[in-house]
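*Target chain*
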Amino acid sequence: MSVLASVEELRVDFHSRKGVVRAVDGVSFEIRDQEILGLVGETGCGKTVTARSFLRLLPTPPAEYAGGRVLFRMDGEMVDLLRVPEDQMRAIRGDRIAMIFQDPGKALNPAMPIARQVGEVFLQHRAAELLAEAGLELDSVDPVGRAVLRRALAQRSRVPERVALRLPPLRGRWRRLQVALDERVARALEETRIPNPRKTMASYPHELSGGMKQRVMIAQALACDPDLLIADEPTTALDVTIQARILELIRELQDRRRTAVLYITHDLSLVRRLCDRVTVMYAGRVAESGAAEDIFARPLHPYTRGLLGAIPARAGRGRRLTAIEGSVGHALHAGDACRFHARCPHAGPICAERAPELAVRDVREHAAACFLHDDRVALDPAGRPAAEVGG
């Protein structure tokens, strides 16, 4: 499969009173057409910062894109999303790349009905199609009238007189235009298996359950058939049964629409069920990446092994779960060492001096950033990297 998007040596800093925090430090991975890539790691490892960089949603300042590129395929060419003009970025958000946020209760506007919130996506990116259904052309409306028209449609209010004067053909077609918008919103909600889309359209977020709000978020994200869907821990706040339904829904919609998905989570049991490939992050860096079946069958990085060892299993009933000692270090004082060396049972002197390179260590692009798999490093009897040999 061809590459749809790729992150190359991405570095994101946050400026604070205590100094510069490097939240993402040289992260690289790629997303291919029609696949689900799992981005895995503990809270605070930089997953969400990396994902939001695709849409440039980080506030600058305090955030700063300090280096690297985020490439996305547009019309057969790869463009750097960190450097495209803001008006082009607005056209990409919600249309070519969409995002499902972690907490739908906070992502949805509590003061707006669902129909208006989902409808805004169509008004922003499919206004020309809606106007064409009413016998109008978007080019016939000046920018001011276009903005007022979108607002009136979203609020289901009458078109102001100053706009109606610019659009004589609109008379008699306003109702048809509103019906066309409502039909698109209802179809988008119906695709996510919401039982009564028309009733949900008139509801406010506080009137819906957590699972229903998450379905609304999915409908909003998939409304314009994006090429890439970013799902930022979409099932964290849901119970297990609703979680399973949401995962099944994402997989079903992805299969039907052929959309690539970047799925962010800290739960490896979900990754096993859902993802084709996996990238494991730790403290702002990539620790391991490869096909999901390879990583679960032969984990190479000690951090990945620790995560897998902490998953409860029926076969291991009665045994003590593995725990990773210590906690994630502060990115403010990270330095050039391996970020995991303070918690690693195999760490040696070289691990505290510099970071290992992310390189292929196994079959089928199975890569890991660990000196345990570096042929240039001599290992002591305990399996610890002791010193470099042979240049």
About this structure: The chain has two domains: 1-96+226-332, 109-224. The two ends are 37 Å apart (CA to CA). The longest strand covers residues 3-16. Residues 321 and 370 are 24 Å apart (CA to CA).
